[in-house]
Design a protein that fits this description.
With 204 residues, the protein is an alpha/beta fold. It has one domain: Rossmann fold (3-Layer(aba) Sandwich). The strands form 3 sheets. The protein has a 5-stranded parallel beta sheet with strand order 4-3-7-8-9, sandwiched between helices. Helix 2 packs across helix 4 and helix 4 crosses helix 5. Bound molecules: adenosine monophosphate.
């Protein structure tokens, strides 16, 4: 029996599905999709330094079926939110964010480390485990009429996502939620996102 939480299965039902409860066939397909996604995430111990277990998503990127399932499941709760822009955090958030944007019919906004964006930027600094980091976004990337989804590969302490949320809100845009392929529950990163809706596919 798979450990996939029911809530994840429910969220994978297409928005146009006529019933709240999944048919056995649909439930089995959703479980299969989630199992496939999980099987394409591998642990790399002691990377980038001793004591960190790095969740490597490159096998997921390499598998077309798993990647398509992951993008579909990432955007599923936000399909009816009229998202106009997906914000992706450098660098793995660019891949998942751009694909999510395409699937939602939205545009993509890159959030980048200092010195990378060519035009005028907003900047937000945040704490890392050791030291601090800063994320930038072009000032003209969003307007108050935009409806935004944040996307990254993984939420750990939540510092990166909280900085991204702050950048989006600086512009007056509406942030509809944040979506992650992986959430490290024991770090409680979602607590840093306050009332922002958080959706993660795989929990550790
Ligand atoms: P945080 O700001 O602590 O939530 O860290 C999130 C960012 O760091 C994401 O962009 C992840 O790509 C990366 N990250 C943090 N911890 C891990 C981990 N254990 N495995 C893979 N990526 C990680």
């Amino acid at each position: 029996m798979s450990a996939t939480p029911l809530s994840v299965v429910e969220r994978m039902v297409p928005a146009h599905a006529p019933f709240t409860l999944l048919s056995p066939t649909a439930a089995s397909k959703a479980h299969h999709a989630m199992d496939l996604i999980k099987s394409r995430i591998r642990d790399i111990p002691d990377f980038p330094r001793a004591g960190i277990v790095f969740k490597d998503l490159t096998p997921l990127l390499r598998d077309p079926a798993a990647l398509a399932s992951a993008i579909g499941a990432l955007i599923e709760p936000f399909r009816d939110d009229a998202i106009t822009a997906v914000l992706g955090m450098e660098a793995r958030g660019f891949v998942f964010g751009a694909l999510a944007a395409q699937a939602l019919g939205a545009g993509f906004v890159p959030l980048r480390k200092p010195g990378k964006l060519p035009a005028a930027t907003h900047a937000v600094s945040y704490e890392l485990e050791y030291g601090a980091a800063t994320l930038h976004m072009h000032i003209d990337a969003l307007t108050p009429t935009d409806r935004v989804l944040l996307v990254d590969d993984l939420i750990a302490t939540g510092g990166t996502a909280a900085a991204s949320l702050a950048l989006a809100r600086l512009t007056g845009a509406t942030v509809c939620g944040a979506a992650f392929v992986v959430e490290l529950d024991f770090l409680d990163g979602r607590a840093k996102l306050g009332d922002c809706r958080v959706h993660s596919l795989v929990h550790y």
